[in-house]
Amino acid sequence: MKTYKELYTAVETQISSLSFTGNPQNLYDPIGYMLSLGGKRLRPVLCLMANDMFGGEAQHAMPAALAVEVFHNFTLVHDDIMDNAPIRRGKPTVHEKWNQTIAILSGDLMMIKAIDLLVSTQKTDVGKLIQIFNKAAAEVCEGQQLDMNFENLNEVQVQQYLDMITLKTAVLLGASLKLGATIAGATDDDAEKLYLFGKHIGVAFQIQDDLLDAFGEGDKVGKKIGGDIAANKKTLLWIEALRLADASDKDALNSCIGMTNEKEKINKVIDLYKKLGVLEVCEQLKKKQLQLAFAYLDAISVGSEKKQVLKNSAIELMERMS
Questions:
Q1: Which CATH architecture has domain 4-321?
Q2: Cα 309 off chain centre by
Q3: Phi-psi region of 54 (alpha: psi -120 to 50; beta: other; left: phi over 0)
């Protein structure tokens, strides 16, 4: 099987060759701009890895791989608008560089272009691919809305949060793998097991991301520590802290929400997280998701050496995040 690095390079080459032109050009320019900002290209690489696992040829799965990457970037364009975010990967967001109207319309066009790429897939049942893709796309929208709904709730339950990140983040990882496997001719059973592997890996990745916001090292993580705390985001750490806290600690946590001194606020919340043992609880939840993921991977009917490449890649990505 090809390595993550080899497939990443192949994806980057293909993305750089994509051309988005039309009239008016300022509707199309943000698409190329957004894709040029880079990233881990996790979703398209997983699509190609799954295809490779079942003996498929990369050129047959590449349109689907590009489709999920264009779709993912579409969601980022719209997420940045909803979050009023000025920066994405160190560069101005689309709505900042152009304006909100262009960002909305260009994002819509990215979704259309993603479908165009998907239906160009050869030697497979395109209708089946569209079903997999559209199901994940709808669920991503559901997850984003749930995340926004949480902003208006005083408390969120752990399972509610896990359900939200499954929809918002994890299902697209699972769908990327399922698309690649399906294009390669995998059985429905194996393709579904690979989807479930990706879904649980995605949840584990998001838990790890939550943990790093409070307990990572800024220079290694590549972002400011405590950003979620400063923004009053209801991450898994916050939810578990409220669940574990007695009345006094719960009052202390809630009092942090309105604090204006950002550094003091972040330090106070992290101190409470340490006191309540939140890191250990969340690490256990992450470990459970990884165990579930690898159990589904182990049950797939291909050689163990092929599965090990995917497993090692997931572990390496997890370690790289930390």
A1: Orthogonal Bundle (1.10)
A2: 21
A3: alpha
Contact 129, 121 (CB under 8 A): yes
Phi-psi region of 235 (alpha: psi -120 to 50; beta: other; left: phi over 0): beta
Task: Report the run of H or E that residue 175 belongs to, with start and end.
Answer: helix 171-183
Domain boundaries, the chain: 4-321
What the block records as the tokens of 136 is: 């994940």
Amino acid code (one letter) for 112: I
Packing angle, helices 158-165 and 126-150, rounded to 10? 140
For residues 126 and 132, what is the distance between their CA atoms, to the nearest angstrom?
A: 10
What sign results for the dihedral spanned by CA atoms 145, 151, 157, 161? positive
pTM of the model: 0.94
Q: CB of 240 within 8 A of CB of 280?
A: no
Q: How far is CA 37 from CA 7, 77, 116, 138, 163, in A?
A: 18, 12, 22, 25, 29
Per-residue pLDDT of the chain (322 residues; tens, 9 = 90+): 888 999 999 999 999 999 999 999 999 999 999 999 998 999 999 999 999 999 999 999 999 999 999 999 999 999 999 988 999 988 999 999 999 999 999 999 999 999 999 999 998 899 999 999 999 999 999 999 999 999 888 889 999 999 999 999 999 999 999 999 999 999 999 999 999 999 999 999 999 999 999 998 755 545 578 988 998 989 999 999 999 999 999 999 999 999 999 999 999 999 999 999 999 999 999 999 999 999 999 999 999 999 998 999 898 888 876 5
How many C-beta atoms surround the C-beta of residue 298 within 10 A?
A: 12
Q: Name residues whose C-beta falls within 8 Å of residue 147's C-beta, 6 or more positions apart in sequence.
A: 164, 168
